[in-house]
Amino acid sequence: MFAIKKNIIRLLTIVLWIVLVPILTYVASLDLKIGVAMVVGIIGMAICLVCVINYKLGYYIFITITLILPLLERISGSSQSVGVVMDGLLISTLLGCILRRGDKSVKKVQFMKDALLISFYLYTVLLIIQIANPAGHRLLAWSIFFRVFARNMIFLGIGLHVFNSMKDVRTFFKFWIAICTAAAFYACLQQWFGLMPYEKAFIAKYPKMFNTTIIISGIRIFSFMSDAASFGIIMACNIIICLILLTAKLSNLGLKKKILLIISTVLQGLALAYSGTRTGYVMLPVGLMLFLLATLRNRNTILIAIAFGFTGLVILFGPFHSNGTVIRIRTAFLGKQDASMDVRDENRHRIQPYIYDHPLGGGLMTTGGNGQLFYPGHPVANLQTDNGYLRAVLETGWLGVLLVAANFFLLISMAVRNYFRIDGEVNKLLMLGIAASMLEMALAQYAQDASTLVESSIMLNALTAIAIKVKYLYALNTQS
């Protein structure tokens, strides 16, 4: 009976395609845009259906498509509603998770006792309260911000169902390193051979979107991601993870995998340099510092540190005086305080009285360009914070910035505890990689709003889900 039903479904699918092909061809001949829209819609519905059927696969589909959406947007030649695509994929994946009732191991997570999760709950409550903030309470601005926050929390929640064992965790890291290596390779091609024609055309059409991309020394490379800043931050975090994994013994991580990691590290190092993200340059030694403190007795750790230090000295003091990329790296460590930093410090000093007078902040989306759009005339509208912590205290007050800092502290400490509690060298190094990369992210927040960028928020929430789940998976294993 089951076989008969299966054959009927296959037959209906074939008939449907036979009918759709001539219809699409006819419609496309009348209006190309409508035909393309129909094809994209059918492909999109098919992908969403796959996400519903297999939510674990949908989780990776969501990450992949979200990362390459800016590239697809540039190929199309026009700005698209990428948020709608992300929401559709994520809701489909969530629906699949609900229909399949997720994974039973999630019941082991102490949702009402875990300090990190409680900090998320408190931050959510604070954001809800902001709708009544007398200094800034426009529903449209609040709903846009809360929509992005809800998307991140849903993604985090699905991750708790996806990572059911250390095998799932290792699978994610293989996938993440692979896709980031592909991004790094694409960035190198952009630097070596120049931007693609459709990328140049898109920049010419939407120059305001690339104000921070075009600099005096050239173009900051952005790969297939939305901008150079988020790309550079991801590269910096991934480089540390790869370096940490390279310290594993050959018996635990084979020579072939180490060679692939070395290639990946080199490509991502070049990509970070080409991105021109000075925040990313500073992130590297900070992440490496935590790694050294945790594994200083390891011989491979010392070798990695020596190699990293030697490379850094060559870049900083080597005979390279005409290379724009090297000069930009040097200014991050050796350069004097530039005009942009003076402007940022002046803005912070000027806005301090406002911070003291508004304990709940000025309201969501009131700073920077968003403030100028939604709250023209607001005291902090068009104030470019260039600092995630400053934006948090201006928009959500002291409690908001304390919760943001607490989230990072609790996440890093949880990953460090997982490192000392879990078994297996590679597993331990992955936990240390999470701790080091999140420490880098916490530092990056001081220079820019790193955690709210689309690509970096995906990495942040995926690693957060892993850290939380591993904590309880380890507790489950020790009890059994």
From TrEMBL:
<dbReference type="InterPro" id="IPR051533">
    <property type="entry name" value="WaaL-like"/>
</dbReference>
<dbReference type="InterPro" id="IPR007016">
    <property type="entry name" value="O-antigen_ligase-rel_domated"/>
</dbReference>
<feature type="transmembrane region" description="Helical">
    <location>
        <begin position="81"/>
        <end position="99"/>
    </location>
</feature>
<protein>
    <submittedName>
        <fullName>O-antigen ligase family protein</fullName>
    </submittedName>
</protein>
<feature type="transmembrane region" description="Helical">
    <location>
        <begin position="397"/>
        <end position="417"/>
    </location>
</feature>
<keyword id="KW-0812">Transmembrane</keyword>
<feature type="domain" description="O-antigen ligase-related">
    <location>
        <begin position="264"/>
        <end position="404"/>
    </location>
</feature>
<feature type="transmembrane region" description="Helical">
    <location>
        <begin position="175"/>
        <end position="193"/>
    </location>
</feature>
<feature type="transmembrane region" description="Helical">
    <location>
        <begin position="303"/>
        <end position="320"/>
    </location>
</feature>
<feature type="transmembrane region" description="Helical">
    <location>
        <begin position="7"/>
        <end position="28"/>
    </location>
</feature>
<feature type="transmembrane region" description="Helical">
    <location>
        <begin position="111"/>
        <end position="132"/>
    </location>
</feature>
<feature type="transmembrane region" description="Helical">
    <location>
        <begin position="144"/>
        <end position="163"/>
    </location>
</feature>
<dbReference type="GO" id="GO:0016020">
    <property type="term" value="C:membrane"/>
</dbReference>
<feature type="transmembrane region" description="Helical">
    <location>
        <begin position="57"/>
        <end position="75"/>
    </location>
</feature>
<dbReference type="Pfam" id="PF04932">
    <property type="entry name" value="Wzy_C"/>
</dbReference>
<dbReference type="GO" id="GO:0016874">
    <property type="term" value="F:ligase activity"/>
</dbReference>
<keyword id="KW-0472">Membrane</keyword>
<feature type="transmembrane region" description="Helical">
    <location>
        <begin position="258"/>
        <end position="274"/>
    </location>
</feature>
<keyword id="KW-1133">Transmembrane helix</keyword>
<feature type="transmembrane region" description="Helical">
    <location>
        <begin position="34"/>
        <end position="52"/>
    </location>
</feature>
<keyword id="KW-0436">Ligase</keyword>
<feature type="transmembrane region" description="Helical">
    <location>
        <begin position="213"/>
        <end position="246"/>
    </location>
</feature>
